[in-house]
Amino acid sequence: MTPEEMAAHLVFHVKQAALDDLTRFAKVLAERNEVMNLVGPATLPHYWSRHVLDSAQLLNHAPDARTWADLGAGAGFPGVVLAILLKHLSTDSGETPTDRRVFLIDSLAKRCRFLGEVVRDLDLPATVINDRAENVSLKVDVVTARAMAPLPKLIGFAESFFRKGAEGWLLKGENVEAEIVEARKNWAFQSELFTSLSDPRGRVLHIRSVRRAR
Fold first, then answer.
1. Residue 179: which of 209, 200, 148 has the closest Cα?
2. How would residue 47 be classed by pLDDT, with cut points 50, 70 and 90?
């Protein structure tokens, strides 16, 4: 998949400057992956589909969200991709850099150092937080995560965000329906599932009105 083919799947206009930033991110990721094991090496040739489109599709579903929290941000998916796109969408709409922001939350210091370098080098509207997700309390529009934990645990990690009104837009695998059933044993929430644009086996899970089950 080319950058242009990736962009064609999105409902909003992707500027060339955004594609340039995403290309720069790909280069840094490949270089650092040799020593940090940020992503599976076999996925790098499929960067635009496996990583970028997988992340960017979240903005198709939540185009009006201004603030995002990416839990277990890891290599920057989906958080860094979202920050790059939001940076250039803000430029298009005349917003200031602080109007849209992504909080990249990860418990490993070395990953946070990597994310911090990317944020600085690409001048992204993002803040890196080196802490466990359950220790962070922020008011955001959306909480997201990819491959962080099964849904029952993930909801627990994100509980403080949901209490403050966030909705969840989560990138999940083909076993998500079983995860939803398990999560409902301890949590009450509304949910919707969408087929992933990057892999027909994947799902985008939307959850809202999250609270502890009685």
1. 148
2. very high
Task: Please give the pLDDT value at position 147.
Answer: 84
Q: Is 134 annotated as a binding residue?
A: yes
Q: Per the annotation, does 83 bind a ligand?
A: no
CB 107 within 8 A of CB 131: yes
Q: Name the residue with tokens 């645990």.
A: 153
- Measured between alpha carbons, how far is 132 from 103 in angstroms, rounded to an integer? 13
Q: Alpha carbon 34 to chain centroid distance?
A: 23
* Domains annotated on the chain, with CATH: 3-212 (3.40.50.150)
Enter the DSSP assignment of 51: I
Percentage of the chain lying above the pLDDT 70 cut: 96
Q: What is the pTM of this model?
A: 0.94
Question: Is 77 marked within a binding site?
Answer: yes
Return the pLDDT at 150.
95
Tell me the C-alpha distance between 94 and 18, whole Å. 16
Question: Is residue 82 a contact partner of residue 68, using CB atoms and an 8 Å limit?
Answer: yes
pLDDT band at 178 (very low <50, low <70, confident <90, very high): very high
Q: Determine whether the annotation assigns residue 177 to a binding site.
A: no
Q: Is 133 flagged in the annotation as binding?
A: yes
- Do the beta carbons of residue 207 and residue 179 sit within 8 Å? no
Listed in sequence order, the residues at least 6 apart from 62 whose beta carbon sits closer than 8 Å to its beta carbon are 141, 142, 167, 169
CA 49 from centre of chain: 15
- Among the residues of 104-210, which ranges form H helices? 109-122, 151-157, 159-163, 176-183
